[in-house]
Amino acid sequence: MSEEVNQMNFHTRKWVKPEDLNPNQSLFGGRLLQWIDEEAALYAVIQLENRKVVTKFISEINFISAPVQGDIIEIGIIATHFGNTSMTMRCEVRNKLTREQILTIEKMVFVNVDDLGKPVPHGKTEITYVKDRL
């Protein structure tokens, strides 16, 4: 794989707003996990070229620091393994302006499914980019 493939890309940015806060006035962890799950699902859909993917597994979640209102965070996802029907990713979240690490998830597994929700082979073995498929 090329060096470009091994680098984590941070595509999605979120602005921490009042409605995202917990009683401690920092970002509610559940909101952040919602954003991560959505970003990872989109990443899997694009990589596997199938709109039907499901979250199978999320490993230990390591909260490192707490963003506050007004912070801009960015979510990074990288594929680490392609199984027959699954795709494994790693996730990092950081503060866009300070680069301070906010969270890491070492392993997220998504499964490629058919119209009935049953796992089906996806035929992928490495990260591809849409520009290379056109």
Describe this structure in words.
The protein has 134 residues and is of the alpha+beta class. The chain has a single domain, classed as Roll (Thiol Ester Dehydrase, Chain A), CATH 3.10.129. It contains 3 helices and 6 strands; from the N terminus they run H-E-H-E-E-E-E-E-H. Strands 1, 2, 3, 4, 5 and 6 form a 6-stranded antiparallel β-sheet that branches. The longest helix is centred in the N-terminal third of the chain and has 20 residues. The N terminus is likely disordered.
Morphology: elongated
Which residues sit in consecutive blocks of at least 5 with pLDDT less than 50?
Answer: 1-5
Give a quick account of the main beta sheet: strands, pairing sense, barrel closure: 6 strands, antiparallel
Proportion of residues in helical segments: 10-25%
Gap between N and C termini, in Å? 20 Å
Relative strand content: 35-45%
What is the CATH first-level class name?
Alpha Beta
Number of helices: 3
Q: What is the oligomer described by this structure? A: single chain
What's the count of strands?
A: 6
If you average the pLDDT, what whole number results? 92
Q: Please compute the radius of gyration using only Cα atoms.
A: 16 Å
Order of helices and strands: HEHEEEEEH
| CATH homologous superfamily descriptor | Hotdog Thioesterase
Which second-level CATH architecture applies?
Roll
**What structural class should be given to the helix and strand makeup?**
alpha+beta
